[in-house]
Amino acid sequence: MRKIVSFLFFIFVFCFAAFGQQDPQYTNNMFYRLGVNPGFAGSQDAIRGIILNRYQWSGFKNAPKTMVFSADAPVLVFGVPSGIGINMINDKLGPEENVWVNLSYAYKRSLKTANLGIGVTLGMFNKSLKGDWTVPDDDMGIFIDPASDPAIPQEEVSQVAFDTGLGIYLEGVNYYAGFSVTHLNQPRVRFSDLATTYLARHYYLTGGYNIKLPDPLIELRPSFLLKSDLAGWQIDVNANLVYNNRFWGGISYRLQDAVSLLFGMELINGLSVGYSFDLTTSALGRYGYGSHELFLSYSLNVEKNRNRKYKSVRFL
Length: 316
Known about the structure:
19 strands, 1 helix, Porin, two-stranded antiparallel ribbon, mainly beta, 14-stranded antiparallel barrel, disordered C terminus
């Protein structure tokens, strides 16, 4: 029985995960679009950076934790308007740890009513697995021991693979839209002949709009993020209410997963902090206390007048 359960758990981790959503998810995705779309790089006249921490399913032992550092800036490459960016992501889930480091480049072009960015990202993906873990289950009387299955590594193993992606991003005065593909080459990670997995291609469609309300100090900013690996899909629908371009609060719904509350403010010109809390609506909600996400972002205007106010906290 122990061998059967161990084998099934191994299949879940190494096979099912290969066909499920493998990329980390972010409730504050409207503030961190470079992570899924390289075409976003350099889309603003500012050097921008963000630090984001996500603590998913708080209350579970060894629950997922994600840490992000990202930055981008507009540049000229041989006289061509461009954007560059960097993403550094550390994602932990129980005995598994994934690290992404990638660089993004975007070709920028001004259209009649919008700015277009066509981007590519290149980088490295590292997957690590610790073999010294066990999963007890007192309710069912089952004790999963990796040593009972020869396919599971018995010590810490780590492998590196090359990763790439593409994206197109369009931004107008009051709207944005983008489509991107991550893990275009479907990088494969092989620990042994019996333990092999890969990152499936993920497809992202995103968009948002700024709606002026009767009070000129208040804007409603709805947005969405649709993601799929062609085996499953998920959508986040968001709405933020922004006051005086400095304070915001909103709500987000992730289909069949969570309802989230978002809050944030611009502390000083260009420096912002945001927080969100996910109330899990799936069956997992009975065993945890939701998810927390906190980010700090900063924008340094590349123009001479660095004291100007940014028109939208969405683009910090």
